[in-house]
Amino acid sequence: MANPSGKSGASVSRRLPSGDRKRGLKKHTRLVGEVVWAWSELQKAYAFAFSQTVDNEGTMIGHAIWTALNNDSAQRDILDEALYYSLKVKAAQRKRIQWAIKETGHLTRYRNDIVHGARGWEITTRGLIPTFSSYGNPINRLVRYADRESDDGEWLAGPDIHQLMVLLRGDLMQLAAYVKEIGRAIAGRKPSALPRKPRLLARKFALAAETKAKSPKRRQGRGSPPKPSRT
User: Fold this and answer.
1) Which of 76, 73, 102, 92 minimizes the C-alpha distance to 186?
2) Is the residue at 138 inside a domain?
3) What CA–CA distance (Å, rounded) separates 125 from 171?
4) Residue 6 lies in a domain
5) pTM of this prediction?
6) Does any domain span residue 220?
7) Which has the closest alpha carbon to 134: 10, 230, 36?
8) What is the pLDDT along the chain (231 residues), one digit of tens a residue?
9) How many folded domains does the chain comprise?
10) Nearest one of 213, 215, 211 to 226, comparing CA atoms
């Protein structure tokens, strides 16, 4: 294959890794894509709720304000503020959307870990699978997913990143449907029943290892902080 630059040397393939890495990477990229899609669906639901909160008679002012902000968090913040001033929004509707905004804030760190985290490879009985690399990631991100040892000597595995992505995708889809229904209630001229709060699972799953690792007998200065066991 000719080198497009005209210089001598081996060319770099445009294909994804093959061999031992192919299977793990295929599953990983599929789940990352699903998380990105579900996150976009949730942000779209917030955009709809914001437009219904601030617009009158089908104007597009809310849409213009929303799209002028290029940060997801800033968009949710402006919705949070607008809920207090809109005469269209009932107190129960406001509280439900604000609950969803708060829960979305809790999930943001895991979404950012998945979307922005630099990946390495871990050797398992199932072959090579992607994991967080020791390079390119802040220490807090590595610690969140690190295997660790409890004070009692019990070996505790960090949260499985693929299982977390499955749960996170589900939580985001649940929140998106929930916020969309409340947006429809705000837009409606007649009162309608509000949806029940969804049961969210991803954050509890991610925090499980950290909770198990804590011990009331732990003393200051005893032991050392957990270190990532993966490369």
Assistant:
1) 92
2) yes
3) 29
4) no
5) 0.83
6) no
7) 230
8) 555 555 656 788 888 777 777 778 889 999 999 999 999 999 999 999 999 999 977 789 999 999 999 999 999 999 999 999 999 999 999 999 999 999 999 999 999 999 999 999 888 887 788 889 999 999 999 988 888 777 777 777 888 999 999 999 999 999 999 999 999 999 987 767 889 999 999 999 998 856 654 544 444 444 455 555 454
9) 1
10) 213
Contacts of 40 (CB under 8 A, 6+ apart): none
Place of tokens 């990105």: 36
Could you tell me which of 90, 88, 92, 64 has the C-alpha nearest to residue 78?
A: 64
Question: Which structural domain range is residue 92 located in?
Answer: 20-212
Amino acid making up residue 18: S
Structure tokens at 68: 């002028």
210 contact partners, CB below 8 Å, separation of at least 6: 144
